[in-house]
Design a protein that fits this description.
single chain, 0% strand
Length: 423
Amino acid sequence: MGTGMWLYVQLVLIPYQKTQASIGQSPRGNLSDLYPRWLGTRELLLHQRDPYGADITREIQIGYYGRPLNATRPHDPKDQQGFAYPIYVVLMLAPTITLPFSTVNAAFFWLLAGFTAAAVPLWLRTLGWRCSKTGLLIWIVLAVSCFPAIQALKLRQLMLLVAVLLAGSMTAVVRGRLVLAGVLLALATIKPQLVFLLMAWLCIWVLGNWPERRRLLWSFGVTITILVCAGEFLLPGWMREFGLAIEDYYRYTGGATSLLDVLLSPGLGRATAVALVAIVLVFAWKNRRVRQETPAFQWLLCFTLTTTLLVIPRFAPYNQLLLLPAVMMAVRARHPLWAKGRFSRFFYAITALSISWPFFAAAGLVIALAWLPGPTVQKAWGLPFYPSFAIPITLYALLLIASKVVTDQDSMRTGSDEAVFSG
């Protein structure tokens, strides 16, 4: 399945994209999401130039797309590829600025692939699942070869760094190493939209046992303060420029459109997003006293990450890697969920189908290349993506159903109603 997905991307998807770009005369340069961050870092640290400036954005476009974008060309991309990251991301990329970008780009592919593989055992430890070595290998292979991971690796997306930082932070929480957890969580804020809801939940959880858990909040606060101050030293007033860069990003990409906005409507989508965030906060408050090694804590972690994928703006497939712990929890609880009733079996079946369909569809298209010409197969390039929107939604529904299973597990473990979910 993993080989089929990689071959699909190389032999079907990329050739199709190149063909469409040629027809529409759309530019194609290095297409590396690392390049805007790397160039901005190099220009700031070596030449003291503002990475948020329009001149840097133009230079980024020349490398990323091969030429500056032209608003009068209808097929030119809308994404201007500005430096839309917190300035302290340069601290992580600083060691690379003296190297050629081709070297950095190639090295980051393997570095990010290693991060993706390393996140798997970290999530398993967070969930308290001791699987066999064969099981661990299967999880790693499927994680590295699912389309979200391949897309992120091809783009050199720093989301893969954020994912392993979050996995490490949650593992540290479960093991009681709260200072380390706070530091890793703060570093993950280079993509604040992916961690804001997780931070809100953990703040509430810390309040549930302040004397023992306050180290998490203090270490997070100190680390963020250091990062912000270091950024201010490097580029005074960077927070204002970062805010303007985010506004520009949403403007030229057509607005802050979440998955809910696409499936419903912008107004109804935002209202639903607010409701989903409120549900997480209610669950978090009612279960703020649960210990980090309990199924209730693990369930809340998965539920929070899944909700994040539903409400964040600019839905992108590679962000679905944050659903990995939720998928692990669903696989681990497959027997009680299947035995729970028809409603549970229905959602479990469509969730399993949604997750497995891209692998089988990609393999089918690759096999079809043996009998059909490439352009004919490329017409069906979108076949593996049909359930992309469904995966976060079906997982969300399945986690709501699983809350009762988690309740039963915690009740048997603690003999009390301390960790019982309400609602």
